[in-house]
Design goal:
It contains 11 helices and 8 strands. The chain is an alpha/beta fold. It has a single domain, classed as P-loop containing nucleotide triphosphate hydrolases (Rossmann fold), CATH 3.40.50.300. Helix 7 links the parallel strand 6 and strand 7. The relative contact order is 0.19. It binds adenosine-5'-diphosphate and magnesium ion. The site of adenosine-5'-diphosphate has 17 residues, from helix 1, strand 7 and helix 9.
């Protein structure tokens, strides 16, 4: 059965879209069928990061009742990876009903091994609708105390709402000497630390090129960390399947 995983954080710019793109491609490389969904309706950029900029039908059209979700699924240049893109113009934002996100995205369960949902930051209604489209959540934080506590809050709210918190990603680590150490971050977050992704210029370079780093520079430290994350997620998924089995 497919897994619906939301990628969430307290603040913007922590690396949710980067994580969604790289995790999706990394899981695809491992042989899983994956659908990456851009559920950040007002600040959509997953398609650009994944190198697609000419989609006719977007998630906005589906949320406006103009198209079906099937019509918004695109294949990508990445092995086993499909994408549901979002529109970037404001007119589309105005007609899309974010409350329909959960029922829309849940239709993808069972059709893919993994559906990875790129969400807006914070706990506003748009973000809640996007995050509640998943059954599990991956939290993304940077090594700064206010970022960690904000992301922790999101985790607490989602857990109360019934989602399973898989753990968190400590992204952009090592940029400054004042960075919160991984052990301390894990103690504050009170959920498992899945991977530490270093601050790596290759990640930003890859974003600019429209080819996520696991594909653009697979030997970079950033790419290796995202591959490690995919490995963790695959093992958690396998373990849960056995427990349920
Ligand atoms: N580990 C990293 N090292 C260097 N730059 C990064 C890293 N992770 C993300 N970035 C850069 O940070 C910016 C914000 O990332 P993004 O994934 O768009 O954040 P969010 O979706 O949470 O707003 C992007 O320019 C991205 O390339
Ligand atoms: Mg984003």
């Amino acid at each position: 059965m497919g897994r619906l995983i939301s990628v969430a954080s307290g603040k913007g710019g922590t690396g949710k879209t980067t994580t969604t793109a790289n995790l999706s491609i990394a899981l695809g490389k491992m042989g899983y069928s994956v659908c990456a969904v851009d559920a950040d309706l007002t600040m959509a950029n997953l398609s650009l990061v994944m190198g697609i900029d000419d989609a006719d039908v977007t998630i906005h059209d589906v949320l406006a009742g103009r198209n079906t979700i099937d019509e918004a699924i695109y294949s990508t240049a990445y092995e086993n990876v499909s994408l549901v893109p979002a529109a970037v113009d404001w007119e589309h934002v105005l007609i899309a009903d974010p409350r329909k996100l959960p029922e829309t995205i849940r239709k993808l369960k069972g059709r893919f091994d993994f559906v990875i949902i790129d969400c807006p930051a914070g706990l506003q209604l748009d973000a809640m609708n996007a995050m509640m489209s998943g059954e599990e959540v991956l939290l993304v934080t940077n090594p700064e105390i206010s970022c960690i506590t904000d992301t922790m809050k999101v985790g607490i709210v989602l857990k109360k709402a019934g989602l399973t918190v898989l753990g968190f990603i400590l992204n952009r680590w090592g940029a400054t000497e004042r960075d919160v150490p991984p052990e301390v971050a894990e103690e504050v977050m009170e959920v498992p630390l899945l991977v530490v992704v270093p601050e790596d210029p290759a990640v930003r370079e890859a974003t600019l090129e429209g080819t996520p780093v696991v594909e653009y520079k697979p030997d970079s430290e950033g790419a290796k960390a995202f591959m490690e994350l995919a490995d963790r997620i695959s093992r958690i998924a396998g373990l849960k399947a056995r427990v349920r089995g």
